[in-house]
Amino acid sequence: MSILVINSGSSSLKIKIFSDIDTPAIVHGNLEKIGEEHSALHCQFAQNKIDKQITCADHREGLEQFFTVLKDNNALVDITAIGHRVVHGGEDFSQPVKIDDNVIATIEKNIPLAPLHNPANLKGIEATMYMFPDVPQVAVFDTAFHQSVPEHAYRYAVPESFYKEQKIRSYGFHGSSHQYVSKEAARILQKPTEQTNLITLHLGNGASVAAIKNGKSIDTSMGMTPLEGLIMGTRCGDIDPGVLLFLLQKYSHDELDKILNKKSGLLGLCGSNDMRDIEAQNTEQSRLTIKMVVHRIQKYIGSFYAQLPELDAVVFTAGIGENSKLIRKLCCENLAHLGIELCDEKNNNVTCGEIQSSQSKVKILVIPTNEEMEIARQTYTLINV
Ligand code: AMP
Asked: Can you tell me which residues bind substrate (predicted)?
């Protein structure tokens, strides 16, 4: 058996092929700049690597060329199912689903909630449905894992009709990552997932925190859009809505959208969206930026801790969480009174596993995320029931 996982972005495609659901992908592929004059296709196989420039007008052409490369390398045999990452399932999906016309129509219905992502995800689905009409295809939603968040946590205090008529509420994202690392954490802690209480910190270019009670998400930092919450690579995270009203007097809606999503966060503060650069800068401004990032993370640790009956572990994952010893150290600083205490030596040496001190009541874990493996697992489980 093989499970093909497709993550289709607005101008890019990422694919992975898993030969089973518990071992790393056997093929990693990446196609960037779809629709531009030259698109870059990279494919990593067990024995060889292919990098080439291609021309493709759209996602279907891109996937066709991808699949030609996969076929030429005997990687496209025995595809049992295809799992698609879909960003926004709105309130319609709390589980992965087999894709049919109704599911496609419902993903389309949710386009207003994710105008950039859902159309791109649909392009990938449509292209593979056309090319593999007989292979079952499954949609796995970024929002689904957070559908267990209770209403008092996901609602905004705006007029009631905004929720009833326009579905304005918090949805949360990075669900496959939070779900993957919470299951891995339970495995490391040797507890059943449904008895595990965690705070999971997905700290990448996009960043979010989730409070996990008995294996289920009960709160998360991202909101109706991925703009809320932590300070990210280029997104501002939490901000007084009054600031937006103030800025709207000067900037158009589109300009403000770009400022908050693409020009803020680390980039806006320090001129780079890469934490490695910011750590290396070591200037007054970069030190302030790091303090702001850590302050926001600690604010969420405190507020999510207060919602949990007890805390088994704080989990660090994604690019910054997995790699930045400095950010992990600063995030855990001065939290000993909450039972969270880091061991410097472990923090400096461990790439996956426990990094807390021997006195720490709460475990601190570094767990590399694997959203695609989670999608492959959910796809496999669904088609085998
Ligand atoms: P992701 O979105 O999960 O791929 O994370 C990407 C981000 O991780 C990059 O933009 C960097 O800011 C950050 N990152 C990766 N490696 C390191 C590192 N060694 N130290 C600090 N940050 C890192």
From this structure: 85
Options 142, 238, 240, 312, the catalytic residue: 142
Instruction: Tell me: pLDDT of 212 over 80.
Output: yes
Instruction: Please state which CATH class domain 2-141 belongs to.
Output: alpha beta
Residue 265 Cβ inside 6 Å of ligand 1? The answer reads no
Atom index in ligand 1 nearest the CA of residue 325 equals 20
Asked if 142 is an active-site residue, the reply is: yes
Which of 45-59, 175-189, 229-243, 272-286 has the lowest average pLDDT? 45-59
Average pLDDT on 312-319 reads: 98
Q: Is 349 annotated as a binding residue?
A: no
Compute the radius of gyration of the chain from its Cα atoms: 21
In this prediction, residue 86 carries a pLDDT of 97
Q: How far apart are the first and last CA of the chain?
A: 16
Give the nearest ligand 1 atom to 275 CA.
12
276 pocket-lining for ligand 1 (C-beta < 6 Å)? yes
Q: Which CATH number fits domain 190-371: 3.40.1180.10, 3.30.70.3270, 3.30.420.40, 3.40.1190.20?
A: 3.30.420.40
Flag whether 113 is marked binding. no
Q: Is 215 in the pocket of ligand 1 (CB under 6 A)?
A: no
- Determine if residue 197 is labeled as part of a ligand binding site: no
Q: Band of the pLDDT at 76, cuts 50, 70, 90?
A: confident
Q: What is the pLDDT of residue 19?
A: 93
Question: Which of 11, 70, 20 minimizes the C-alpha distance to 38?
Answer: 11
Is 11 a pocket residue for ligand 1 (Cβ < 6 Å)? no
Q: Which atom of ligand 1 is nearest to the CA of 205?
A: 2
How distant is the alpha carbon of residue 42 from its chain centre?
22
pLDDT tens for 125-141 read 999 999 899 999 999 99
85 is in an annotated binding site: yes
> If you average pLDDT over residues 308-334, what whole number do you get?
98
Is the pTM of the predicted complex or chain greater than 0.90? yes
